[in-house]
Amino acid sequence: MSNLISFINAFLSYLLLFGVCIAVVAAAIALGIFLRKKHDAQGEKRRTEPQAGDSGR
Fold first, then answer.
1. pTM of the model as a whole
2. For residues 44 and 57, what is the distance between their CA atoms, to the nearest angstrom?
């Protein structure tokens, strides 16, 4: 019975570690998507603004 409890304890420990790794990966993906959208929006804003020295034609 002691071996079973040790196995379950180790299994749950690795399961918790796996969950933490998944959470970190999900946070990194979400942050990457957010920053990419922000960067793309800034690039779009720069393209629509007139450049210095343009006569507006």
1. 0.68
2. 20
Tens digits of residue pLDDT in 13-39 = 999 999 999 999 999 999 999 999 999
Using a 10 angstrom Cβ sphere, with 0-12 exposed, 13-18 middle and 19 or more buried, the burial of residue 33 is exposed
Q: Extract the tokens encoding 34.
A: 């957010």
What tokens appear for 41 in the block? 């929006």
User: What tokens appear for 9 in the block?
Assistant: 């304890």
The total number of residues written for the chain in this structure: 57
Q: 25 is written with which tokens?
A: 């990966």
Q: Do residues 55 and 49 touch, judged by C-beta distance below 8 A?
A: no
The token pair at 2 is 């002691």
CA 17 to chain centre: 18
